[in-house]
Amino acid sequence: MKKLSIRDIGKELGVSITTVSFILNGKAKEKRISEALTKRVLDFVEKVNYTPNVMAQALRTGKSKLICLMVEDISNNFFFSQVARQIEEKAHINGYRVIFCSTDNDKNKTRELIKLFRDRLIDGYIITPPEGIEKQITNLLDDNIPVILADRNLPDIQCSSVMVDNYESSFHATQHLIDQGFEQIAYLAIESTQTQMRDRQRGYEAAMNRSGKPILIKKLDYYAPQSENVAQLKSFMLAHPTLDAAFFATNYICNWGLEVIRSLNLRIPQDIGVLSYDDTSLFKLYNPSITAVAQPIQQISDNILKLMLDTLNGKFRAQDVHQVVIPAQLIVRESSIRNTLIPKDSTILTQ
Amino acid sequence: MKKLSIRDIGKELGVSITTVSFILNGKAKEKRISEALTKRVLDFVEKVNYTPNVMAQALRTGKSKLICLMVEDISNNFFFSQVARQIEEKAHINGYRVIFCSTDNDKNKTRELIKLFRDRLIDGYIITPPEGIEKQITNLLDDNIPVILADRNLPDIQCSSVMVDNYESSFHATQHLIDQGFEQIAYLAIESTQTQMRDRQRGYEAAMNRSGKPILIKKLDYYAPQSENVAQLKSFMLAHPTLDAAFFATNYICNWGLEVIRSLNLRIPQDIGVLSYDDTSLFKLYNPSITAVAQPIQQISDNILKLMLDTLNGKFRAQDVHQVVIPAQLIVRESSIRNTLIPKDSTILTQ
DNA sequence: TTTCAATGCTAAATCGTTTTATTGTTAATT
DNA sequence: AATTAACAATAAAACGATTTAGCATTGAAA
To answer: Do B59 and A64 lie within an 8 Å CB cutoff?
Structure first.
């Protein structure tokens, strides 16, 4: 059961392979192939279920129809895995396949990966970039290979990106805590100079400053073992007994925090209010349910892929910069409610 | 900055491309190329940072170095996303890239996907198979394309697979609940004839029968909307007020169950004991923490990839059947403890 | 001196497409 | 009758590698 080649079907029909190729690529009209022949070829191709050899096409055209999706860690993040899923699905519909890999937020690993793919294997990249790969991205763009940054961008280079309004949504989330009467709101984050992290912090600080509340920030180490971070967080909380609310910069930090809160036998929200950036399925289920800033996954994925396809199809050049910012959603749940007038699980859009 | 071809480096060195190819493929000795020339070529290749065009190699050799990983839903399952990550990493180390996609447990979608890839794009498949794709898999194997089934197998065909001992681990989990003094233990599952689901149910039934306890089973619909399943589960629990423990067949069913338990204001484990198949990060964090059967992800991934690589490297033929069964772990947490003698978060290996 | 084997390297075919340039027709115009 | 235009289809080169079969050269054996 060997696969048919275009040569086989040409021979079978007594037609040249050129003709077959033109017809299959929808150039019948343009190349003035007669309608009769076009139909004959199309029918036969359909009948014998012929599909072209993708590798040969890729070699000849220099286009692999492969998109590479590089996320921080596909396995450990609700947001990334959802986005990955969406992208994969939409790409398929448009005739593209998706190769994916995890960067671990490590610039060396990411550089390696890009280098590995450099040899025209990949038509386009979607990346949640660690800092330090600016040069590699510029090189790709210079070769007119599209790159879309997701979730964050790299301020030192000009590159298309899709992300949420981290500053505004963080501001609103903090404001929500303030409105609920929390006084000592700590911001728990990781040591990072990534744009989305900076913006979230700026949002928190701006809201606190505007209300004249004290700023209280603790930074953890992304690369440290989980137990170390939990311990750090615990001693921080013990050192600040007057704390009455915690704003976690990501959902995994919030997970660490919940572990600590639990071990200290604190009640949420009576003893401590809780709010997290990045919603997960856990937060809805947790007892009490956790208020979170949700990133609209569908919209983000749609925008990423649209930009990618438009660039691949030549509507834009890779170097053209399109930066899309999408409003995030504050989903208010039990963990942040002191004022009982606000209904459970209500949704508030920032903006 | 055009990419160098093997022709360029041959020309540059005044050597034929044949020679260069032999040397690059480690056949210098075999083809009796002199050591001096071998070194000269290798040094030059290193210096100019030449890498071969993957597409041309693929076209010529018929091997793409691409593995396709088809899981049920990459975005919504702790187990699958972890496995995906592991596979990706190990495959990379061995010079393979991973394409991934979600089957949605839909046989038509899965067939489509396999068909799409049929044209020697993919060297090997790792699949968590929906039922109904037996024929497609047999076809692949007949063409000597390796297929490894993961998480479950298809009883009607002969195919390599890697999965946990669903029957034994489910038996032990049930036995654990019985040992804790629970009397009316319900088994909450989805309507499915997949092997892993059947085996889990058989394990529950066997343990219950051996202790002379009543069997109580409720089946939900995987494809129904979540709200529908939650409602179903709620009315089931209301209809069985004497129920004192629930064994959930998967973690997402357990999530539905926790939502119901919460809405009924039942206390875990005082009013109802809870145990779930498939651990997630949620279960450790939940209050109270949830006892679960954990699948050893590392071991599963290792075995899958080892089988795949051994077949790709010709150590086995695709048709050779290797069925690997790995023991699962029962992680005992608060939700199933009545007998306070057992320590928290202790780990019991089945077998 | 011829024959043979070993050594060191290469020409050319091949994988399955796309695409450029070209060749025959026939019909219309000069 | 000769030129041109439009039409319909094709031959052959190219993409960049791998691999088969073979070509020179040298030294040793016959």
So the answer is: no
pTM: 0.89
| Matching residue, tokens 């498949």 | B125
Contact list in B for residue A81 (CB cut-off 8 A) is: 74-76, 81
Q: Does A45 touch chain B (CB under 8 A)?
A: no
CA distance B140 to B157: 12
Tokens of B135: 């024929």
Q: How confident is the model at residue B342 (pLDDT cuts 50, 70, 90)?
A: very low
Residue B86 has pLDDT above 90, yes or no: yes
CATH of B61-163+297-326, one of 3.40.50.970, 3.40.930.10, 3.40.50.2300, 3.30.300.20: 3.40.50.2300
Q: What is the pLDDT of residues A66-125, one digit of tens each?
A: 999 999 887 767 888 889 899 999 998 998 999 888 888 889 888 888 877 766 689 999
Report the mean per-residue pLDDT for chain A: 91
Determine the distance between A18 (CA) and D13 (C1') in angstroms: 13
Q: Provide the 10 A C-beta neighbour count for residue B292.
A: 28
Of B1, B81, B259, the CB nearest to A81: B81
CATH architecture for segment(s) A61-163+297-327: 3-Layer(aba) Sandwich (3.40)
Give the CATH number of domain A166-296+330-349.
3.40.50.2300
The domain limits of chain B are 6-52, 61-163+297-326, 166-296+330-349
pLDDT at A342 over 70: no
Interface touch A281/B255, C-beta < 8 Å: yes
Residue B64 identity: S
pLDDT band at residue B37 under the 50/70/90 scheme: very high
> In Å, what is the separation between the CA of A34 and the C1' of C20?
21
- Considering the four listed CATH numbers 1.10.10, 3.60.20, 3.30.160, 1.10.260, the one that applies to the domain covering B6-52 is 1.10.260
Nearest to A59 among B59, B74, B97 (CB): B59
Chain B residue nearest residue A97, CA to CA: B99
CA distance B195 to B187: 16
Domains A6-52 and A166-296+330-349 equal at CATH topology level = no
Residues 282-341 of B with CB under 8 A from A: 282, 285-287
Rounded to 5°, angle at Cα A246 from A242 and A252: 140
Residue pair B271/B209 in contact by the 8 Å Cβ criterion: no
SS3 state of residue A85: helix
Please tell me the predicted confidence (pLDDT) of residue A290: 96
List bases in chain C with any atom under 7 Å of a protein Cβ.
7-12, 14-21
How far is B223 from B207, CA to CA, in rounded Å?
29
- Reported as a pLDDT band with limits 50, 70 and 90, residue A351 is very low
